[in-house]
Amino acid sequence: MQKLLSRPLSNPPPKRSFSYLFSHSVSKTTYDPPFSPISKPPKPKPKPPDPTPNRNPTPIKSSLPFDFRHSYSETDPTLEPIGFREPKRFSPFGPGRLDREWTGTSAPVRDEVDSCLVEEERIRVLGDPLTEEEIEELVEKYRHSDCARQINLGKNGVTHNMLDDIHNHWKRAEAVRIKCLGVPTLDMDNVCFHLEEKSGGKIIYRHINILILYRGRNYDPQNQPVIPLMLWKPYAPIYPKLVKNIADGLTFEETKEMRNRGLHSPALMKLTRNGVYVNVVARVREAFETEEVIRLDCTHVGMSDCKRIGVKLRDLAPCVPILFKDEQIILWRGKRDQERNSDISDANAKSSGA
Question: Which region holds residue 8: left if phi is over 0, alpha if psi is between -120 and 50, else beta?
Answer without folding.
Answer: beta
